[in-house]
# Entry
Amino acid sequence: MKTNTASLTADQVINNILNAKGSFVKAYWKSNPKPAAAFKNIILEKVTSAVVRAGIDFSNLSSVKTAIENGERGEVQSLPWGQWKMFPYIIEHKDANYIRLYPSSSKNHIPSSTYYADGFVIDKQTFADYLTSSEREKLLNPEENRPACFTIKVENVLGTEEYVELS
# Structure
């Protein structure tokens, strides 16, 4: 069941996720990273698909609890920006809504991305070459930079579909 969310509200996106039969859904979203100054006239877009879940309290993630216990990070603080509109699903910031999604930790569920420059599909390395050095580093070293969660502007969610794992 694929859903076009171009005109959906944050609440409708959440309802699509909550009404899925399993706890995971496949979600699709886009981002438009700012290019390095030398490429300021190029429009970059990254479209990602991942198996995700929503409705988790970040402080309850086992990886976060373990990191705190091991002294690898401090206690979980309040949001660094924005405020919860609907905890733990939607963050509101500067009149925009963001949905917080958590990637599946299954080794079978690796997020995938398609990269575009000025509307044309390009490979990951070429895309990385357009980015600032810090953003390039994040993109090219995903294991070191794997996020515990994704915070996505709701208008950038392209779709959701129920995820059924076939054994």
User: Anything to note?
Assistant: Residues 10-18 form the longest helix (9 residues). Residues 9 and 15 are 10 Å apart (CA to CA). Residues 3-162 form one domain. The chain has four helices and ten strands.
